[in-house]
Amino acid sequence: MFEILDYTVPILPRDKPRYVMGLGNPTSLVEAVSHGIDMFDCVLPTRIARNGTALTSEGKLNLRNARFAKDFNSLDPAHDCYVCNNYSRAYLRHLVQSDEILGARLLTWHNLAYLFDVMRGVRQAILEDRYAHFRNEYLAGHDMEFGAI
Ligand SMILES: [Zn+2]
Question: Is the C or the N end of the chain the one with fewer CB within 10 Å?
Answer without folding.
Answer: C
